[in-house]
Amino acid sequence: MATLAVCASGALENGGPGRRFPLGSGGEGFVVRHQGVVRAYHNRCPHRGLELDWQEGRFFDAKGEVLVCSAHGARYDPAGGGCLGGPCRGRGLAVLVCREQDGLVVVEEPGHERRQQ
């Protein structure tokens, strides 16, 4: 299975800035850390297909608690990508499989993702 090394594990802080990365299948993904766990998603709001971050790497709200679409204010659960409210209307973020390995955040190539509801 092909994987992408995105960044050093220590580069991600709980509720802090995330890291964007290109996907081999096209588009872009991002990783964030929430409650000590690294999560990865497609960087695409299901409402309009726009990137979520309002400034590069800024995916969380001001409190670092939920992921927010910069264009429409849709709110997503960082623990699984599910829609918490806004124009996403129940459509969650596309989840990418990721893990921490040897001090790195590693994401599996797309084709192994699932959409959270």
Provide structural commentary.
The chain is mainly β and 117 residues long. The chain has one domain: Rieske [2Fe-2S] iron-sulphur domain (Rieske Iron-sulfur Protein, 3-layer Sandwich). Helices cover 0% and strands 38% of the residues. The protein contains no helices and eleven strands. It has strands at 3-8, 19-22, 28-34, 37-42, 67-68, 75-76, 83-85, 94-96, 98-101, 104-108, 114-115. The strands form three sheets. It has a five-stranded antiparallel β-sheet, with no helix packed on it. A three-stranded antiparallel β-sheet has the order 1-10-9, with no helix packed on it. Strands 5-6-7 form a three-stranded antiparallel β-sheet, with no helix packed on it. The chain is globular and about 40 Å long. Residues 112-117 have low confidence and may be disordered.
Compact summary:
The protein is an all-beta fold and 117 residues long. It is built from no helices and eleven strands. A hairpin with a 2-residue loop joins strand 3 and strand 4 (37-42).
SSE blueprint and pairings:
Layout: E1 3-8, E2 19-22, E3 28-34, E4 37-42, E5 67-68, E6 75-76, E7 83-85, E8 94-96, E9 98-101, E10 104-108, E11 114-115
Antiparallel strand pairs: 1-10, 2-3, 3-4, 4-8, 5-6, 6-7, 8-11, 9-10
Strand order of the largest sheet: 2-3-4-8-11
CATH superfamily, called what?
Rieske [2Fe-2S] iron-sulphur domain
Under the CATH scheme, the architecture is 3-layer Sandwich
Number of helices: 0
Extended strand count: 11
What is the residue-averaged pLDDT? 90
Strand content range: 35-45%
CATH class assignment: Mainly Beta
Helix/strand/pairing class, anyone?
A: mainly beta
Biggest pleated sheet: 5 strands, antiparallel
Number of domains: 1
CATH topology: Rieske Iron-sulfur Protein
Distance between the termini: 26 Å
Large-scale geometry: globular
Residue share in helix: under 10%
Low-confidence stretches: 112-117
Radius of gyration: 13 Å
What is the helix/strand order?
EEEEEEEEEEE
